[in-house]
């Protein structure tokens, strides 16, 4: 029996399919019809309706008569509460994040990386900040953000190369672009202690990211500061904002006993 077969045998297919339905929803797709869910999941109609009925019964989905589509149910919100509550990094970091965000009139984001996915777990808006506020729970781009590059550089080389090789098979130009950005990010980490976004995700926003040195429960935590390209603080990115963000991360690590 191969490792892949053994892994497949340990999975409950109905649960995997049910999760695939829930994962169709995001901040850009708040409402989906049965047809849209079939197209996104590739599930046969009878299977889809059986799973959707079950998800509605337990409150994970709800059918909205107003829009004649399915929407995420409150059970998902209930499930998110213990996830956020167990994240002690979030509780320790928030006051310092708010203080720094106010000082530099920017947005600070706390991001967690797990199983090759990056997710916002806290977003703090400083006084006067004009940066768009992403929702907690939203996925973060791996290739076009400072946090994505910091995470990829934290991986063992073979794991990082495997990710880049898979990306190159699907999107060769994107993989080539990311390799160049990773070379630059590696230099930034060495020289400054943070990575940069180069405004690749949003051309009007510049971001830097500082990762924690140690993982917690197999998760890597990353702290990002984002500000508009017209911010007067942008000129101090290397000399003030970056060092302050690094100090914040070190203080959180000390509070958690990671230093």
TrEMBL record:
InterPro entries for this protein: GAF-like_dom_sf, HTH_MetabolicPath_Reg, Tscrpt_reg_IclR_C, Tscrpt_reg_IclR_N, WH-like_DNA-bd_sf, WH_DNA-bd_sf
Q: Name one GO molecular function term.
A: DNA binding
Q: Which residue range or ranges hold the IclR-ED domain? A: 75-258
Pfam families this protein is in? HTH_IclR, IclR_C
Q: Where is the signal peptide?
A: none
SMART domains associated with the record: HTH_ICLR (SM00346)
- Gene3D superfamilies in alphabetical order: 3.30.450.40, Winged helix-like DNA-binding domain superfamily/Winged helix DNA-binding domain
Q: Tell me what this protein is called.
A: IclR family transcriptional regulator
Q: Which organism is the protein's source?
A: Comamonas serinivorans
